[in-house]
Design goal:
Elements lengths: L105 H6 L3 H30 L3 H35 L3 H38 L15 H46 L5 H17 L1 H19 L7 E3 H19 L3 E7 L8 E3 L4 H10 L8 E10 L2 E8 L12 H14 L3 E6 L5 E7 H10 L2
Parallel strand pairs: 2-4
Antiparallel strand pairs: 1-3, 4-5, 5-7, 6-7
Helix pairs in contact: 2-3, 3-4, 3-5, 4-5, 5-10, 6-7, 7-8
Length: 477
Amino acid sequence: MENKKKPLRMTGTSLEGKDFSNMDLEGADFSFSSLEGINFDGSNLRNAKIRFASLEKATFRNADLTNADMSFSSLTDTDMTGAKIEGANFSFSSQGKSFNWQDLNLIGLIQSQSWVGTVVAAFIGALMLYGTSAILYFTLEIIYTSNPLRVQLNQYLIAQNVIGGVFTVLIAQNLAIWLDSMIEKIFFRHLVLSLIISLFHMSLAAGMYYLFGKSIFQALKVQDPAAAVQNNAWYWYTVGPIIIANVFYYLARQGRQLSRKISDQEYQLLNLEKLKTRAELDALQARINPHFLYNSLNSIASLVHEDPDKAEEMTLLLSKLFRYTTGRKNRDYFDTIENELEMVQTYLQVEKVRFGDRLQFEVEVSNPVLKHLQVPKFILQPIVENAIKHGIAKLADQGKIIVKIYEENGWLHLCVHDNGPLFSDTMGAGYGIRSIQEKMKLLYGDDAKLELHNEPGKSVNISILKTAIEKGHEENE
C-alpha cells in the first residue's frame, strides 16, 4: 500500500534565512511565520499556506506557487523571478521595495512581528480596553446610581460623546477625498482635519451645554455646593476626537490606496495573461512541415525534365502557399474561413502534383455567409496535412479528402473527412491535433472542441460556438 506523504506543518515559527531550496513542500503550512530572507528557490509549494507571514527579502525563483495562499503576507523585496503563480492568492499582501514612513501600512506593520508593530498593537489594544471600560463605567453609573441628577449628567455625557463620535467619523470620511485632492503634503492634511474637528467639537460642546448641560450643572451645584469642581482645561477634551478623526482618515486613505493597488495588480495580471496567451499562440502558430517542403522540392526537381509545366505550376503554388504563411498578416491570430480554405486548397493542389490521381479533394460550404466568419489562423491546414500523412499516403488506391463547413444549433463545424486507415487510439497525441486543441483552449475555453470520429465516416470535427467566435475575435484584436 502506498504511503501518502503528510504535508509539512510549521505554523507560527521563526525561520529567518533558512534554506528550503529545491524541496518538495506541496501543501505545507507556514502561516503566521517569520520567513524573512528564506530561500524557496526551485521548491514545490503547490497548495502551500503562507498566510499572515513575513516574507521580506525571501526568494521564490523558479518555484512552483500554483494555488498557494499568500494572503495578508508582507512581500517587501521578495524575488519571484520565473515562479509559477497560476491560481495563487495574494489578497491584501503588502508589496514594496523598502520601508517608507509615508507609505506606512497599519495592518502590515502589526503583522510584521517587529518591535514597532508590537508596540503599535499594544497601544491600540490599550485604547480599545480603556474605551470599553469607560463605556461600561458610564453605563453602570446610569443603572446603579440613585441620584437622578447624576443619572442625567451621565446621560448628557454619553449623548455628547456618541453624537461627537458619529459626526467625527462622518466628517473624516467625507473630507478624505477633498483633503487628498486639495492638499499635497500628508502632514498638512492631518493638520487641517484636526483644526476642523477641534472647531466642530467646541461648537458641539457649547451648543449642548447651553441647551441641556447648563441646567444639570447648576442643579448639581445647588444640591452639593462642596462637590469637586472640574478644573481641567477644556481643550484636552478635543484630543480624543482629533485622534479618532485622524485614524479614520488614515484608514480611509489606506483603503483607497489598497483598492487602487489591487486594481492595478489585477490590470497587470490581465495584461500578463493576455501577453502570455499571445506568446503561446505565437508558439502554436502553424508552420509548414519541413518534410512537406523537402517532398515538394524533390517533386519539382523530378518534374523539371519530365514535365516542366507541372514543375512550374508546383513552384508557383508553393510560392503562393509560403506567401500566406510568412506574409504581413502572420502576426494576426484570426482570418476568414474563405482565406483559410484558399490556403488549404493551395496546399492540396501542391500535394496533388506529387500524388497525381491518387489524391482527390473537395471543399463544401453549406452557406456562403460562413466564409466571412473569422476563425483561428492555420486551424485547418494541420488537420489536412495529417489526413495526407496518416491517410492518403498509406493508400495504394485513390484517396479522397473532403472539407466541410456548416452551422448547426449555433455551432460552427469545420470537418475534414478522408478515406484512409481509421484513427488509432493514440492519434490524438500527434503534434498537429494537439496544437489545434491547445490553440482553441487558449482562445475559446470550453466553447470549442475537437473530436476524432471513425464512424459513420472517418473525420476530424472542430466545433466552435458562434457567439464565442465573435467574442474571441474582439478580445484578441
